[in-house]
Amino acid sequence: MERAFLELGTIDVFVNNAAYGLYGAVEEASDSQIEHQFMTNVLGSLRAARAVLPFFRKQGGGHIVQISSMAGHYSIAGMGLYCSSKWAVEGAFEALAKEVAPFNIKTTMVELGGIRTNFLTSNAVFGERLDEYRDTEADQFVSLMKGELPGIDMSMFNQMVVGDPDKMAHQIIRRVDQGEGPIRMALGSDAYDQIRTAFLDRLAALEAQKELAYSTDSDDVVKPL
Questions:
Q1: Number of domains forming the structure of the chain
Q2: Residue 4 falls within a domain, yes or no?
Q3: What is the mean pLDDT of the chain?
Q4: Is 133 a catalytic site residue?
Q5: Which of 20, 23, 82, 192 is flagged as catalytic?
């Protein structure tokens, strides 16, 4: 980071993009695979952001673009570890955005849907498949990601991915040029649909538990004004 600022002088935008997918049932991943997933997706993102912040403060501002995922809002069988890493990113950077705003440092989390890069193919890592999970939802998801489902080859799978990387990059640049906007930016129709469905499902489940939640309050609680 020191070298970058020394050679370039002023850096306006920092894009945090390091991540990969670890797929399979949670039990199927090894300890080292899980650790490496979080070292890259979560700690890698946090360390990079923490490293750039002193330089942004010194120069009077900057913009952090944290590449997140629609998977930061839901979790499905076969993708639990990747999803949990993105949930962690979402939580950390939502707080960070509020903390650094007084220094004129802006933060945008880009919640991508599927994107036509090599992220879903050559960069994927898989746990060791266990017989106990054969033909379960998690196993079928892994088969899809590996191109092993009958009638769906990798070419067809790629066409099922909706995100155009050039269009997404253009929108990220546009947001940075605008300088203002919501902390989260969903890109891809699948991202919009999946995130919206996850929110509505969770809200409905929460509303159904309102009476239960209120019933556990202390009798002498003092409500804030």
A1: 1
A2: no
A3: 91
A4: no
A5: 82
